[in-house]
Specification:
- The protein has 5 helices and no strands.
- By secondary structure, it is mostly helical.
- Helix 3 runs antiparallel to helix 4 (about 55-60).
Length: about 90
């Protein structure tokens, strides 16, 4: 994997890229940069991954999404795909 995300990624995709690379802090910073639907959705995922479920639930509510009942990997994949389709 490259040391930096590809140019032109949305902040949501960049956050998921950093998450896949294992850098939760950078992923979280990207998710926090935009208070839009995609940013809030990734923010929720990241707090779920962190284990802060009450914070994750807050962000799921803010973006009007139900907290997934699947594994983190099963949540990550469709998130990334949906953001790629929008870019």
């Amino acid at each position: 994997m490259k040391p930096q995300p590809p140019d032109g990624l949305s902040l949501a995709l960049e956050a998921l890229w950093w998450d896949a690379k294992g850098d939760w802090e950078k992923a979280h910073r990207c998710a926090q940069e935009r208070d839009d639907q995609a940013g809030m959705r990734v923010h929720a995922y990241l707090h779920r991954k962190e284990g802060d479920l009450s914070n994750a639930d807050h962000w799921y509510r803010r973006c009007r999404a139900a907290a997934p009942q699947v594994s983190l990997d099963e949540e990550w994949e469709p998130l990334a795909q949906s953001f790629l389709l929008k870019s």
